[in-house]
Amino acid sequence: MVEKGHYVLVIGGAVAGAEAAIQFAQRGIRVAVLEQNALPYGKIEYGLPKWHVKLRNKEEAAIDAKLQHPLVRYVPLTRLGRDVRLPELLRWGFSAVVLANGAWRDRPFPVPEADAYIGRGFYYQNPFMVWFNQMHDPNGTVEPYEVADGAIVVGGGLASIDVAKALMMLTVEEALRRYGISTHVLEMEHGIDRLLQRHGLTLEALGVRGCTLYYRRRAQDMPLTPMPTDTPERLARAQMVRLKVLQTAQRRYLFNFQELCLPVGILTEGGRLVGLVFCRTRIDGDRAVPIPGTEHEVRAPLVISSIGSIPEVLPDIPMRGETYALADPELCRVEGYENVFVVGNAVTGRGNIQESLNHSRRIVQRILEQYLGWDAQLYEHLNRQQESQVADEVARIARHLTARPPLEAEQISLIDDYITQLQQRVGYDGDYPRWIQRHLPKRLEDLLHLELPDADGE
Ligand SMILES: Cc1cc2nc3c(=O)[nH]c(=O)nc-3n(C[C@H](O)[C@H](O)[C@H](O)COP(=O)(O)OP(=O)(O)OC[C@H]3O[C@@H](n4cnc5c(N)ncnc54)[C@H](O)[C@@H]3O)c2cc1C
């Protein structure tokens, strides 16, 4: 028999959404999780590069366990703002709606004219990585992306290094194929340098120039590691680790790097973007200040912008700048609503890796000692940080709910029926494991008949 209580709707089923769901469920609160994709895994499935096989599997299993709690109901293929609108959801009387929809919008490129060339010489990082993660699947439905040697990547964070790595892997794989050598991403993750050495080859011999990562500040300013920078000594150490991260990644994956360069214009030809105009910069505190008169053209067959991810604009949700407008920053309550909240990366976007020392010492040590595996640890650390942030946020929301009257049993039943309707609309019968099995894409390691690689260094 249904009893009185609260019923919360969570938008997004990934690290933050699944954690929010389990936190409510463990307090005896019913939860429905609305997810726009068939799979709930978000950045883990589509953003984390596919060479992190073990980490991906581990994180996805954790999400699965949370979403299968008896008080949690999963609704796939249902996007807030497209398939359902917030006012309609609120009319059903949910005790709270919690946005855990992450940060899926690429920060706009500083030269807005580039957007007219998306797909014609210019891409943004998020859709590019979604494609990269699925391109091997013969049954996949993602549109093909172009990859070309000599590409420009604009960025400076960890994700931009992933993009540079992915581009190098794809161009080297293609070049080796011409030599009759077959390889794959999971092998190259161990180092393109090693692989080429084994075959007695170099990039030059292969005729590969490699891509170039352009950053507006200096290498030591790249937001690559979670380390405090609040004293001159700590800043110096963080800068040393950042340099080590970049240099080691370059040595292993052979991409080029250009610091102190800000894109200020685009080059176009025959309806395509064929390069960028960069301006040199000087550092003033944290800022990169353009130096007048230093503009110069760099031609490239492809440009990928990887300058950060921010929350998507959604109908009915007010924005302030790049993020959602919050009325009550403590509760992360959305402006204009009594009971709509935001948790996880959707609160702030993910411009920068949060700096925290305690959990990251091990990772930093790993970076200093060796390269392999530290990035998987860093991603894992960010996920745990995300979960603990969400747990705190849900605790505050749950306290707020206890001060409000619970929903009557009848209303809970009506909401339950509505959730069933939403599930039926997309052909989901509530059998979570079977649904996941049916929608899981083909894994590269399975196609290659590989044992799980040890690329994550575990
Ligand atoms: C390349 C990369 C870089 C990273 N960089 C950082 C970093 O700088 N800082 C940091 O803290 N962490 C970073 N992380 C870690 C990671 O992003 C987070 O810890 C965590 O995985 C994000 O989880 P999430 O649930 O908030 O967001 P996501 O994984 O993005 O999940 C959001 C979910 O909501 C769904 N969704 C979105 N919109 C809607 C909608 N309208 N309706 C229904 N469903 C919707 C999505 O499909 C998705 O499943 C990075 C991860 C990767 C892979």
Strand content: 15-25%
Q: Architecture of the largest domain, CATH level 2?
A: 3-Layer(aba) Sandwich
Largest sheet data? 5 strands, parallel
In CATH terms, the superfamily of the largest domain is NAD(P)-binding Rossmann-like Domain
Strand order of the largest sheet: 3-2-1-4-20
User: What Rg, in angstroms, do the CA atoms define?
Assistant: 23 Å
Between the first and last Cα atoms, what is the distance in angstroms? 47 Å
CATH class of the largest domain: Alpha Beta
Integer tally of domains = 2
Count of individual helical segments: 16
| Ligand species | flavin-adenine dinucleotide
Number of E-type strands: 20
Shape: globular
CATH topological fold name of the largest domain: Rossmann fold
Helical content class: 25-40%
Low-confidence stretches: none
The SS-based structural class is: alpha/beta
- Mean pLDDT rating: 92
Keywords:
458 residues; alpha/beta; Rossmann fold; FAD/NAD(P)-binding domain; 2 domains; 5-stranded parallel sheet; 20 strands; 38% helix; globular; binds flavin-adenine dinucleotide
